[in-house]
Amino acid sequence: MGKYVLALFVTVLVGYLADAVVGSLLNWPCAGAIFAIAVMGLFLLNELENLKEKK
């Protein structure tokens, strides 16, 4: 359960920071949402890899 909460907070933090930095510097609206989705996708892919290794 702890790693899922950590994944949630990391995703929110990356989304916020990406929106603040990338969104404002490059004038890229919704950059935070795009980065947050990419980070959560990385967490999901990592979990799938861990499941494959256990088999």
Report on the architecture of this protein.
- The chain is mostly helical and 55 residues long.
- Helices cover 87% and strands 0% of the residues.
- The chain contains 2 helices and no strands.
- It has helices at 2-25, 31-54.
- Helix 1 runs antiparallel to helix 2 (31-54).
- The longest helix is centred in the N-terminal third of the chain and has 24 residues, at 2-25.
- The mean pLDDT is 93.
- Keywords: Membrane, Transmembrane, Transmembrane helix.
- This is Binding-protein-dependent transport permease.
- It comes from Fusibacillus kribbianus.
Radius of gyration: 14 Å
Which spans have pLDDT < 50 for at least 5 consecutive residues? none
Beta-strand fraction estimate: under 5%
| Helix share bin | over 70%
Mean pLDDT: 93
H/E series = HH
Given the helix and strand composition, which structural class is it?
Answer: mainly alpha
Largest sheet: none
Tally of alpha and pi helices = 2
Distance between the termini: 21 Å
Shape annotation: elongated
Can you count the beta strands? 0
Organism: Fusibacillus kribbianus
Keywords: Membrane, Transmembrane, Transmembrane helix
Protein name: Binding-protein-dependent transport permease
Transmembrane segments: 30-48
